[in-house]
Amino acid sequence: MPQLGLVTVLIDDYDRALDFYVGRVGFDLVDDTEMDDGRRWVVVAPPGATETGLLLAVATTPAQAARIGDQAGGRVWLFLETDDLARDRARMLAAGVAFEEEPREEPYGIVAVWRDCYGNRWDLVQPGLHEG
Known about the structure:
- By secondary structure, this protein is α+β, with helices and mostly antiparallel strands.
- The chain folds into two domains: 1-68, Roll (2,3-Dihydroxybiphenyl 1,2-Dioxygenase, domain 1); 69-132, Roll (2,3-Dihydroxybiphenyl 1,2-Dioxygenase, domain 1), CATH 3.10.180.10.
- It has helices at 14-25, 62-65, 85-94; strands at 6-11, 28-34, 40-45, 53-58, 76-81, 98-99, 104-106, 109-115, 121-127.
- The strands form two sheets. Strands 5, 6, 7, 8 and 9 form a five-stranded mixed sheet that branches. A four-stranded mixed sheet has the order 1-4-3-2, covered by helices on one side.
- Strand 3 (40-45) and strand 4 form a beta hairpin.
- The chain is globular and about 45 Å long.
- 20% of the residues are buried.
């Protein structure tokens, strides 16, 4: 299996999600295709990403709607890697992205937890800064 292609994020509105992920986080809009049934195939990804992207999918059932913003039961669910956490955190803060904490050092790098516009928790990670 060569790569993980897309990860679905349940949302309530395409335009709200695009405003957040493209307008605030800084992701690129990879695809926005109208489908026959009124749905859209909307994919966003970090600039330059060549493998994994997010499929933004409007919830269509009550069970799906109940999981918007809590797809991982309150745990950090998605990890956005950067080569400069301070730069990207500052840019995201200026755009209105809510961080839960100041950056902290972990054995795998520097990390700061943030939430998307639905409440899903993410890690912004600058990996590989520590030895052993």
